[in-house]
Input
Amino acid sequence: MKEIKRFQEGKAEFMDLTKNLGLKVVAEYVTTGDYDVVTVLDVPDYATR
Output
């Protein structure tokens, strides 16, 4: 249960950070493994703006 609580706290912190940076979380997937998470982000392209 400790791991789930830490994951939830880390996810909340990550979501706050992405919002502050202007990023959009498109999808998240939990894969097989101890620490495996795949996050798909929509990120502005500041270089060509």
Observations:
- The chain has one domain: 2-42.
